[in-house]
Amino acid sequence: MRVLNQKWSKTIRSLFTLVLVITLFSVSIPSKAAAADVTIGTQTFTETKILAEMYKALIEDRTDLSVDIKTDLAASSVVLRSIAQGEVDMGTLYSGEIFNGYFEIEDTKDRAAVLRQAQDGFDELYNLKWYDPLGFENTYTLAVRPEVAEQYGLSTMSDLKEHAGNMSIGVDTTWLERPADGYPAFTKEYGYTFASTSPMEISLVYQAVADKIVDVVLAYTTDPGLKEFNLVTLEDDKQFFPPFDASTVVKKELLAEYPELDETLSLLIGTIDADTMTDLNYQVDVNKMEPKNVALMYLVDQGLLDESKLPASVMNPDAPPLQKFGYYLTENASYLWNMTWVHIVMVLCGLGLALVIGIPLGIISARYQRTGRVIMFITNIIQVLPSLALLALLMVLVGLGNATVVVGLFLYSLNPVVRNTYVGLSEVNAGIKDAGKGMGMSPLQLLWKVEMPLSLPFLMAGLRVAAVIAIGVATLAPLIGGDGLGREIYAGLNQRHNIKILAGAIPAALLAILADIILGRLSNRFKVAKS
């Protein structure tokens, strides 16, 4: 018992140390993205990532500013929300975004009028400078396989009217709900609906139609999937889809603070046409090149960047896969370590908060059975909620960023800690508790010196389960604007890029295995001490 009490005392001291560390980390995590002078946000699709790398290269080459890129924000609306909340400073947006209900607009499909409304409206709403277009439009279109177009004589979207009732369509995850240019308005304009709709990441729709999982897909006009799978695009003969001219968008406060940015960002205006953007996307999505390398090569070709800035992976494109993986790890070592560190810190914060709150809740549950049933019911409900649904709910309630992720990890870690504290206290032998009472121990002394030390193996087992769960759930952080190893995984999935997937998945898996081994051994040590 004395040995166990010593271990319990050490555990308590470690817990208080952890609380202090968590307090410091909780302050530092949300501002991690702000460590750079400029933070660029991208959507999930490729061209925004290529353009972000262009911005970064130009800014860091022509100014003394440092740049961070926050990739895979779920949609343009999330990019705008991130700008409004100070998570990012700039990004690439499209003029047709005005049709999503941000402010009152003139109902027009004229490109110049749509652009003017975007520039004026978002300036007034978010204090943004919406630059003139980069030179290409990336609007929606419908596409089918060549044999389907030939079989049904399809050349326009109106030609689908007689056949859509027997067809399935694959669309991106936001189009079904978009109010002005989404599926409900489309069906009203064209007068037909499809037999089924399958929402998915835009990068997956082309493979889906090629594999005959769906018959028609909603495509972006600059996506390389159209070229890769030789799809036939259908003319928007009723001009339903609005123009979507791409522009650089920046917070005016940033330009006021760093006026040299304006000239640098203006270098790309009107320089990238649709064919060029499609080719750049093709190099990433089909040839599996890094967005950074594609961006740097383009800037060098345009005379905007010196060739000495090109990394080794660009100079040796035919390297074997293992060597390419090595190039990737070497060239992105700082970024990957940063994402790993943020991942670890988020998990530690979530676990620490779960211990600080969960242990007292477990003690209350063991002492007061009726209250305990309510606590267990609530933590069980939280535990069974799908992780993506819980994080989405927290995003609405708390906002975007790493702090929201920490709250989600805390909630998911709570049940194992509460339940195992409760079980551990309930398993303490009644005779031992009676002996303690007979020695004149107060209830608090009995809890502190007898019950909690004896329940340590159960508590450590709960912490072990919570840690593994938290490490896994933390990979979903990018979906709500957070960082961590999930950024690499989601970027790889969106680009169908195995090296990026492995660069995120392998460290995440190793962290989970390492946490399980360490906490498992600690749990076994306490079991030995107890026996």
Write up what this structure looks like:
- It is found in: Cell membrane; Membrane.
- In the C-terminal section; belongs to the OsmX family.
- Keywords: Membrane, Signal, Transmembrane, Transmembrane helix, Transport.
- It holds the Pfam family BPD_transp_1.
- By secondary structure, the chain is an alpha/beta fold.
- Helices cover 60% and strands 8% of the residues.
- It has helices at residues 2-28, 46-62, 76-84, 111-126, 146-152, 183-190, 202-210, 225-228, 252-257, 260-265, 274-285, 291-301, 312-315, 321-331, 333-367, 369-384, 387-398, 402-426, 430-438, 443-473, 486-495, 498-530; strands at 38-41, 67-70, 90-94, 128-130, 140-144, 168-171, 196-199, 216-220, 232-234, 246-251.
- The strands form 2 sheets. It has a 5-stranded mixed sheet with strand order 2-1-3-10-4, sandwiched between helices. Strands 7-6-8-5-9 form a 5-stranded mixed sheet.
- Helix 15 runs parallel beside helix 22.
